[in-house]
Amino acid sequence: MKTQQGFAVWITGIPASGKSSITGELVKKIRGLGIAVVVLESDEMRTILTPKATYDPEERDRFYHTLVLIGEVIARNGISVVFDATANKRYYRDYARSRIKKFIEVYVRCSLEVCIKRDPKGIYHRAASGETATVPGIQTPYEPPLDAEITLNGQDAPDSGADTILSVLKKLNYI
Q1: Residues 6-21 as b or e (16 or more Cβ within 10 Å = b)
Q2: DSSP codes of every residue in 52-116
């Protein structure tokens, strides 16, 4: 018995750009269609994979490599995956694209100023106070996608972004 492969959606953008809000709406809509979906959210996965995260380049490389492989196994077994993760290097997202057959990348574009004002997790505050030196978009480069299937405005309603993603998934016959 052959299992139909699940799809993967990687939602990327700098911290506080709106990734998690869009992911939440998207997952509700996907589940509403009766499709099994798993969210691989980077902060949550770090508590398992790198519980004492340093965010140094080697650790980030290892973390994202492992995250991609987990997503690949899940998708290969017929469950769809939404990666809710900054993944500051294009290489991480490109690696996922190379490993997962049904893959789309969604870039949530949002100005640094807006993200700093939102700052729900206090990431930018910790960067400004010197508590951390690894925030993508400030102290660590963030490489936006060159060829994302979808670019969303992080200031638009998350529900609207989720609808756009669903539309593309349908167009590609992933759902």
Answers
A1: bbbbbbbbbbbbbbbb
A2: T----HHHHHHHHHHHHHHHHHHHHTT-EEEEE----SHHHHHHHHHH-SSEEEEEEE--HHHHH
pLDDT digits (tens, 9 = 90+) for 43-57: 889 888 877 877 788
Structural domain range at position 159: 8-170
Q: What is the dihedral of CA 75, 76, 79, 83, to 10 degrees?
A: -10
Q: Please state the domain count of the chain.
A: 1
What's the CA gap between 159 and 28, in Å, rounded? 10
pTM of the shown model? 0.93
In a domain, 46, yes or no: yes
- CATH number of 48's domain: 3.40.50.300
